[in-house]
Design goal:
This protein is mainly α.
């Protein structure tokens, strides 16, 4: 029963992160600045981002609930989760509002490292449930590559 409550807690926190990030994304994607950037040939259509983030955050919320249920792991989680949350939220305003793709790339690389660290450092504790973090890790690889392509092709 506690895991279900933890799931909804993390789902709420993750939805809040998506909402805050979305505040910067909507007008940013349609901006002249973003439209003029050279984007990767593998840049997916806009709807893929919504689908991917929804899937990632659902799986991530289940993963976090499982991790939080392990009392001996809570201290580590209470450090890593807020860092991940802040890095996740920070990318959108850095990229779309401040128009700083290089700083955004730094933020997303740090987020990718943190997600991979979380995945690999907990795999012995969470065992098969670690697969729930794979969508996040894979999406971060894709998102990082998209940001890196833009940085490489800045004119």
């Amino acid at each position: 029963m506690k895991r279900i409550a933890y799931f909804f807690l993390f789902l709420l926190l993750n939805a809040l992160a998506l909402f805050i990030g979305g505040l910067f994304t909507k007008s940013g994607v349609s901006s002249t600045w973003y439209q003029s950037l050279s984007k990767a040939p593998w840049n997916p259509p806009g709807w893929v981002f919504g689908f991917a983030w929804t899937t990632v955050m659902l799986c991530f919320s289940i993963y976090m609930a499982e991790w939080f249920a392990l009392k001996e792991q809570r201290r580590k989680l209470m450090v890593l989760y807020p860092l991940q949350w802040l890095l996740n939220i920070s990318w959108n305003p850095i990229f779309f509002y401040c128009k700083q793709p290089i700083l955004a790339l730094i933020a997303i690389v740090l987020l990718l490292i943190l997600v991979l660290y979380t995945l690999f450092s907990n795999r012995n504790v969470l065992k098969g449930r670690s697969v729930l973090l794979l969508p996040y890790a894979l999406w971060m690889v894709v998102a990082t590559s998209l940001n890196a392509y833009i940085v490489i092709h800045l004119g």
